[in-house]
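Quick start: read one record
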Amino acid sequence: MNDINDRRKEPRKKLMAFTQVHDKPKGILLGYIRDLTLNGVLVIGEKKLDVNTRTILEFELPGGLPGITAARMIISARVARCEDDKSSQTYKIGFEFTDLEPGQTNILQALLERYHFRHKM
């Protein structure tokens, strides 16, 4: 059986910034970014979400992103997985981005470049 890391198109990068993620339609905090790619995000949160649910995510962007003036990014996503992390009483929620626009890709690239840990994963 293949590990999920073997199926990924690109490696995830862990972020140093403490970035909140909200469910925009419901207006609730889902959690905080654990790691990120241009295709999706892993959020650590306290609420279980149903796989294949579609939603609109809202990220609070940290300052200091070169060429980015926006304070928030809104992006369509699908819940790809939701795993109970019993050791910390949280959930690892994997979102796959859908309908990604060029401007959103630029923000994600700037976020990855500026705030990811600089090590091989």
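Residues 52 and 79 are 5 Å apart (CA to CA).
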